[in-house]
């Protein structure tokens, strides 16, 4: 992934726009507000799409773009300056990031292929082991369809089963080690005759659970014991070039769409909890795989929803995980670190980034999979009744404590008061102090005194900035439109001469030639501008012109573009049709998004008796005509194929 994509993945456009003084409010999955680029303050015709990381003004400006375009237009700077500014904000050092080399990409795909073969290997052993299969059926209540869907398997006992099987098929030992399937015991050089390094199966006598990243690509395995005397209970793949546990949420590849549909994500602790809940129809569930929630994992969720329920185990470790997760939420949900908890469990900062973080308590010492097995509807009730996190923290700290003990009161106050003091609203802070005072049975004034004398909480001035923690790798999946844009730009970058033929095809369909405005992402616009200039030159070597005229800030992107389009159809006519098809899809996606937003504006204007309905109607009519033309072109193209 390029540096530019890295920055896009790390910066939330809602934060960026809000901090520029635009007051945004929810409008479905999007946000609307008054455009900061012109003086009209009567109609909120400015839209932000968090999922794609883009914005658009439907008013006087009639333009849009991504985070780079917003900063460029807002501050009157060029792309290079905007890149430097946003890189600093994202904690990305421009000089330290190099685009992934094609050979590295190929190596990663090879590791994933090894892991895919391992799924088949483990699956075969599972269906040959009646005891383990019976355990999954009867104890865990999993159906064969679920076992198949999630790719569950079994690693047999013994130290060399997988090693012998895979090497016999031609796999190199190093491939299996790199994929995390084999372990290496270092040579013992201290004892004569015992200097050979031992290589053996990493997973033995365990239920195997494939772990995929948010895009569904294999990353590693989770393994659960079969023998209750074995330790540890769960064993994950080691860190590999494609597996970093803190950067992945188990089940997210299947849960992303349900999370968006429900506008809520539920986090549980175990793999089998996720699987059982998905089987029961609760598909918006993921797991951090037994670790404390990390900032990277929460950022993975943030593009799909800001309503998150922590439904962790009821034991002491589970409660501690909740509090550890709280710290991660403070960092991930609020870049400036100025987080607030209000009476509705709303996490927010002054930049109006919203996140509703709640905690669901598990009853009767049961795990989530046991609850849903006991009563499917009980799970729904538990999630609906999840408590605001501050309330949960207060209740959890009070359980089993002698609230008459002055030291206990002081300890609880010391942990809760800093959270209360983070609240931006004085009324909210007062409400929570009163609740805490009632729980501890103390005078509210004593809490204020404790805060000043015993719990020094230093609130940052509103709007103050802080450098975010530098991350090692991006964690947000690229959205579909970004992928389509990348393909189109990549194909044209590799074969610039196709642009002439593409323009002619579009004109045959009654559509306008390809233009910079067809792309929403600033880096793609810049590359396309150079491609357009290249084909207009007399030079035969378009590629040379491209490489010599790309802005230095995006020159590294060229390697990614070439790498991503290595598998283009060698038949140019077929490639042209594929490129045309994707561009038609791209225009249709943008047109539909704009029409839906215009309908929303029309309804609002009608309710308010505003005078801008005609403007929105005219824009909607134009877009509807465009949609009809695009659909006709798509049908003609399909019939040709």
Describe the structure.
With 641 residues, the chain is of the alpha+beta class. 51% of the residues lie in helices and 11% in strands. The protein contains 26 helices and 18 strands. Strands 12, 13, 14, 15, 16, 17 and 18 form a 7-stranded mixed sheet that branches. A 5-stranded antiparallel sheet has the order 1-2-3-4-5, covered by helices on one side. Strand 15 (340-341) and strand 16 form a beta hairpin. Helix 3 (67-75) packs across helix 4 (79-90), helix 11 (271-279) packs parallel to helix 14 and helix 17 (406-421) packs antiparallel against helix 18. Residues 315-354 and 452-478 have low confidence and may be disordered.
Features of this protein?
Dna Topoisomerase Vi A Subunit, Chain: A, domain 2; DNA Primase, Chain A; 11% strand; 5-stranded antiparallel β-sheet
The tally of structural domains comes to 4
Which range best describes the helical content: under 10%, 10-25%, 25-40%, 40-55%, 55-70% or over 70%?
A: 40-55%
CATH class of the largest domain equals: Mainly Alpha
Average residue pLDDT: 79
Strand content: 5-15%
Broad structural category:
alpha+beta
- Rg (C-alpha, Å): 28 Å
CATH topology-level fold name of the largest domain: DNAb Helicase, Chain A
* Total beta strand runs: 18
| N-end to C-end Cα span | 33 Å
């Amino acid at each position: 992934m390029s540096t530019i994509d890295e920055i896009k993945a790390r910066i939330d456009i809602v934060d960026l726009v809000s901090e520029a003084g635009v007051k945004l409010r929810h409008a479905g999955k999007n946000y609307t507000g008054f455009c900061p680029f012109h003086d009209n303050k009567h109609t909120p015709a400015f839209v932000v799409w968090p999922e794609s990381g883009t914005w658009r003004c439907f008013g006087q400006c009639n333009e849009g773009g991504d985070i780079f375009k917003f900063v460029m237009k807002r501050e009157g700077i060029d792309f290079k300056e905007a890149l430097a500014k946003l890189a600093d904000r994202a904690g990305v050092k421009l000089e330290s990031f190099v685009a992934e080399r094609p050979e590295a990409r190929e190596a990663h795909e090879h590791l994933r292929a090894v892991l895919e073969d391992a799924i088949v290997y483990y699956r075969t052993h599972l269906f040959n082991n009646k005891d383990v299969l019976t355990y999954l059926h009867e104890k865990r209540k999993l159906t064969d369809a679920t076992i198949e869907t999630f790719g569950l398997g079994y690693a047999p006992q013994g130290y060399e089963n997988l090693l012998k099987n895979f090497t016999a098929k031609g796999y190199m030992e190093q491939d299996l080690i790199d994929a995390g399937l084999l372990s290496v015991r270092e040579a013992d050089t201290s004892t004569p005759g015992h200097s050979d390094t031992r290589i053996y199966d990493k997973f033995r006598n365990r239920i195997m659970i494939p772990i995929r990243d948010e895009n569904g690509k294999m990353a590693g395995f989770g393994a659960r014991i079969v023998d209750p005397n074995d330790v540890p209970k769960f064993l994950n793949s080691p860190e590999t070039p494609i597996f970093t546990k803190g950067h992945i949420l188990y089940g997210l590849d299947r849960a992303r769409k349900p999370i968006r549909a429900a506008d809520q994500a539920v986090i549980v602790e175990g793999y089998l909890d996720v699987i059982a809940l998905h089987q029961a129809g609760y598909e918006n569930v993921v797991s951090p795989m037994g670790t404390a929630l990390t900032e990277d994992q929460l950022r993975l969720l943030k593009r799909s929803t800001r309503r998150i329920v922590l439904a962790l185990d009821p034991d002491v470790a589970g409660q501690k995980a909740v509090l550890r997760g709280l710290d991660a939420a403070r960092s991930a949900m609020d870049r400036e670190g100025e987080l607030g908890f209000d009476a509705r469990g709303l996490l927010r900062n002054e930049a109006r980034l919203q996140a509703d973080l709640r905690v669901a308590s598990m009853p009767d010492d049961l795990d989530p999979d046991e609850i849903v097995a006991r009563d499917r509807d009980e799970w729904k009730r538990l999630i609906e009744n999840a408590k605001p996190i501050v309330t949960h923290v207060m209740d959890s700290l009070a359980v089993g404590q002698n609230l008459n003990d002055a030291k206990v009161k002081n300890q609880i106050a010391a942990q809760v008061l800093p959270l209360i003091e983070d609240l931006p609203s004085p009324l909210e802070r007062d409400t929570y102090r009163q609740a805490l005072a009632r729980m501890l049975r103390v005078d509210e004034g004593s809490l204020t005194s404790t805060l000043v004398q015993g719990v020094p909480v230093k609130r940052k001035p509103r709007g103050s900035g802080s450098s975010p923690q530098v991350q090692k790798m991006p964690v947000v999946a690229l959205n579909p439109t970004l992928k389509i844009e990348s393909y189109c730009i990549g194909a044209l970058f590799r074969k610039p001469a196709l642009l002439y033929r593409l323009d002619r095809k579009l004109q045959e369909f009654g559509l306008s030639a390809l233009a910079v405005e067809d792309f929403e992402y600033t880096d793609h616009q810049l590359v396309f501008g150079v491609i357009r200039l290249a084909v207009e030159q007399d030079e035969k070597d378009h590629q040379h012109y491209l490489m010599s005229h790309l802005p230095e800030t995006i020159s590294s992107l060229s390697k990614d573009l070439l790498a991503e389009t290595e598998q283009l159809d060698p038949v140019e006519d077929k490639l042209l049709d594929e490129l045309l098809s994707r561009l038609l899809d791209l225009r249709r996606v943008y047109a539909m998004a704009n029409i839906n937003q215009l309908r929303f504006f029309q309804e609002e204007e009608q309710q308010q008796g505003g005078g801008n309905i005609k403007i929105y109607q005219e824009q909607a009519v134009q877009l509807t005509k465009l949609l009809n033309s695009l659909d006709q072109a798509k049908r003609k193209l399909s019939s040709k194929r």
